[in-house]
TrEMBL record:
Species for this entry: marine metagenome
Protein name as catalogued: Ring-opening amidohydrolase
Pfam family, one: Amido_AtzD_TrzD
Matching NCBIfam families: amido_AtzD_TrzD
UniProt GO molecular function: hydrolase activity, acting on carbon-nitrogen (but not peptide) bonds, in cyclic amides
Listed Gene3D superfamilies: Cyanuric acid hydrolase/Barbiturase, RU A (3.30.1330.170), Cyanuric acid hydrolase/Barbiturase, RU B (3.30.1330.180)
Coiled-coil residue spans: none
InterPro entries, A to Z: AtzD/Barbiturase, AtzD/Barbiturase_RUA, AtzD/Barbiturase_RUB
C-alpha cells in the first residue's frame, strides 16, 4: 500500500476548502486520509486558538465526505503549529493511503499512526511520559509494518502543555508538576524526544 502526500493552502483560520477540493478531485478519498500536519497563521503561543479552528474545519470535512464516525475522526492524528511569520504561507500537509503500486522489493514511503494513553499533567517532563511516548512510537511502527528501527526516518508527535486548570487537577490528586506553565512547551517537547529515542533504541531508560 502506497502513501500519497499533498500540501494544501489554508486561506483563513477556518478554511478547509482545499481539502474539499482535493477529495472532490478523486485523488484521495476522505476515508483514506491517515493524518495531517498544518501551520496556521496564529501567534504560536499556548493561547493560539487558530490551531483549534483549523483542526475543527478539517475534521468536519472528513465527517462530511467520508463514512467514518465522528469518534473515529477524532482519533485521526492532526498536528497544528501556529505562527506564520515572514514568508511562511499557512498550509496543511495531508497523508493518505493509496492503491497505487510500486516496484516490488524496493524501499518506499510508508507511515503508521498511533494515539497514546492519556498523559497526565503530573507526567509531563517525567519518566512516565517518556515510556508512554515510546509505547506509542512502537505501535505506530507496527501500524506501518516497520520492524527495523533503522527504517524509521521521521516521527511527528503532538504533545500536551500545562495550563492553570490542569495544574489544579494534578494538585487535586495530590500530585505536583515538573515545571511552570510557560516552560511546559519546551519540557514537553524534550520529554517526547526522549520517548522517541527510547523507542528507536537510541537511549536507554536510567535504572
Amino acid at each position: 500500500m502506497a502513501i500519497d502526500v499533498v500540501k494544501i493552502e489554508i486561506k483563513s483560520v477556518s478554511d478547509a476548502s482545499g481539502l474539499e477540493e482535493l477529495i472532490n478531485s478523486g485523488r484521495m478519498g476522505a476515508d483514506d486520509i491517515l493524518a495531517a500536519i498544518g501551520k496556521t497563521e496564529g501567534n504560536g503561543g499556548v493561547n493560539d486558538f487558530t490551531r483549534i479552528l483549523s483542526d475543527q474545519a478539517y475534521r468536519a470535512v472528513l465527517v462530511k465526505y467520508g463514512s467514518r464516525s465522528e469518534e473515529q475522526i477524532k482519533e485521526i492524528p492532526m498536528v497544528w503549529s501556529g505562527g506564520c511569520d515572514g514568508v511562511i504561507t499557512p498550509h496543511a500537509t495531508v497523508f493518505a493511503r493509496s492503491s497505487a503500486g510500486g516496484a516490488s522489493g524496493q524501499s518506499r514511503l510508508t507511515m503508521g499512526t498511533a494515539m497514546s494513553e492519556v498523559i497526565l499533567p503530573e507526567d509531563i517532563g517525567r519518566p512516565a511520559m517518556i515510556e508512554t511516548v515510546a509505547a506509542s512510537v512502537r505501535l505506530a511502527m507496527q501500524d506501518a509494518g516497520i520492524s527495523d528501527v533503522k527504517d524509521v526516518h521521521y516521527v511527528q508527535t503532538k504533545t500536551p502543555l500545562l495550563t492553570i486548570e490542569t495544574i489544579q487537577q494534578a494538585h487535586s490528586r495530590g500530585q505536583g508538576v515538573a515545571c511552570e506553565v510557560h516552560d511546559s512547551m519546551g519540557v514537553s517537547n524534550g520529554t517526547t524526544g526522549l520517548g522517541i529515542a527510547l523507542a528507536l533504541g537510541e537511549v536507554e531508560m536510567p535504572p
